[in-house]
Specification:
126 residues, mainly alpha, flat
């Protein structure tokens, strides 16, 4: 009980000190910010530098092939797990309480991976 009272007393002292310090602190405007806001040329030049092309050919874009491969792999992995899950659920519904798993799960995982990969490539090519 005394530890709790000491802890809450310390907390109150720290909070009071923070309130006193916070009331004395004043925000000062930054001179560089004031200059940038007062001069529109500074802002315009900064935006122009930011959006300037990196090389004469323009900004670099991701390859369409790399995008398709990435989407195909990601959707293939998702399809692998989805196909395995669907296969387990179908076997559990049709097996009548017998052991589920085995070849059905492997077939479902392979079919799901193939379907997911094909869907990912198709989705990335749109």
């Amino acid at each position: 009980m005394t530890t709790m009272a000491r802890s809450s007393g310390r907390t109150a002292v720290v909070l009071m000190a923070l309130m006193v310090v916070a009331s004395t602190v004043q925000a000062q405007p930054l001179p560089a910010l004031r200059t940038a806001v007062s001069s529109p040329h500074v802002l315009r030049d900064a935006v122009a530098r930011q959006h300037a092309p990196l090389r004469p050919g323009g900004p670099r874009r991701a390859s369409a092939v790399a995008t398709k491969v990435t989407a195909g792999v990601a959707m293939g992995v998702a399809g692998f797990f989805a196909g395995a899950t669907v296969a387990v659920l179908l076997q559990a519904a049709t097996s009548g309480g017998r052991d589920v798993g085995g070849p059905g799960v492997l077939a479902g995982a392979a079919a799901g991976a193939a379907a997911g990969g094909a869907f990912g490539v198709w989705l990335a090519s749109r």
